[in-house]
Amino acid sequence: MSDASEEIFMITTVNPATGETLADHEELDGAGIEERLARAASGWRGWRETPLEERAGLLLRLAGAYEAHKERLARQCTLEMGKTLKSAIAEVEKCAAAFRHYADNGPAMLEPLRWDLAGGGVAEGRWLAQGPVLAVMPWNFPYWQVARFLAPTIMAGNVGLLKHASSVQGSARLIEEMMGEAGAPPGLFQNLPIKSGAVNGVIADDRVVAVTVTGSEGAGQAVAEQAGKCLKKVVLELGGSDPFIVMPSADLDEAVKQAVTARIQNTGQSCICGKRMIVHADIYDAFLDRFTVAMGEVTAGDPFDEATDMGPMSSFEQRDTVLGQLAMAKAEGADLTGGAALPGEGAYMGAGVLTGVDPDGPMAREEIFGPVAMVFRAADIDEAIRIANATPFGLGSSVWTNDEGEKERFVRDIEAGMTAVNRFLASAPEAPFGGIKRSGHGRELARFGLHEFMNLKTVLLNG
């Protein structure tokens, strides 16, 4: 019998559409983690001195690699977490767009700042890299979540370490492969196939300067606690229970259409898509009738089939979590249409609509990470805003109105990091992304995401 210290542990990935094992990935032991941390520290010392135009060139080559291999990347993602192939391809293309955005605009974002001093002389602000940044990423957008951390990391002159979700380790390995194809130097980006229990040790290592987390509230709390103990910067993008508010002046057909898209995108497993539909009393019945019919027409099935609207849930465990929430809602007196587990071997469930949920009750404060919407009636704009804010989360929001006064009220008074007006809320490389309250803090994307993990050094000069 081998010594326990030599035992090899595996991280297993499973196809949620069939329940079949896809692969076993060897988990890093302590020596393996140390080797990659040392490589990151060594790689950063060289990368921080790389000219901005060379960093931009790498990003452009990386975009090209993603585009050249988008079908392969997308297929792996679909196999591991169940999203439709067409949406997986769109995700890969979005990553390429982010790499190009930072290649084209990143150098200008890093131009020194300059201020004249009242007492004479000037001050400059220089953007300087800091070192290895650890990213703890989820399974729902295996490539995009990483790209919005990786693109600014490369441009900033930092290096990246990825602790990806166990269920998408094949996708994580492909990201490493794309970096190699683009010609990234050793240590610039490395995947750490580790489980959650090993994360604290990586955060505590002196070579790691900061942490970024996208995931559940619990994951964010655990990482933030360790980062706080180590006095390290952390950016958190956590859960959301986004309000989707519809007022009488809105285009009702378009609002219904986008509400359905919000709830079934990625089989409802998206942090920023509308989950709580808050509808003015004057149009509540009309909205609910059309929305319920449309949700009932959603097809769940083979994610490789072009005709499929949504694939399986990412895992049987995730489906069971959502089904448990629905059972709780019904026990509290809510009515559920649809939203049941579907027969067959995969982790499938149908789209559903919950009504009669107490807006001040426990269920209204939950994030349903699946294809089920809660629909609330609001007497007026004041009640709509009150219901929207009656949640511990504050990530995104979407409002539908053609009244200019109402638009301004919503933008000012909804407690969220983002508000979309008469459109579907989505992230974009050009705009900052992030939330408030228990949805986290800090920002990703745009110039703000680039600057989060950089040292803004003040330099005082005589003239």
Structure, described:
The structure is a single chain. The chain is 40% helix and 19% strand. It is of the alpha/beta class. The strands form 5 sheets. It has a 7-stranded mixed sheet with strand order 12-13-14-11-10-16-17, sandwiched between helices. The longest helix is centred in the N-terminal third of the chain and has 25 residues, at 85-109. Residues 11-459 form the Aldehyde dehydrogenase domain. Its EC number is 1.2.1.16, 1.2.1.20, 1.2.1.79.
The stretches of 5 or more residues where confidence is low (pLDDT under 50) are none
Radius of gyration based on Cα positions: 23 Å
Shape by Cα distribution: globular
Mean pLDDT: 96
CATH architecture call of the largest domain: 3-Layer(aba) Sandwich
Beta-strand percent range: 15-25%
Kindly report how far apart the N and C termini lie: 73 Å
Q: Give the class-level CATH name of the largest domain.
A: Alpha Beta
The gist of it:
This protein folds into 2 domains: 4-238 and 439-461, Aldehyde Dehydrogenase, Chain A, domain 1, CATH 3.40.605.10; 243-427, Aldehyde Dehydrogenase, Chain A, domain 2 (3-Layer(aba) Sandwich).
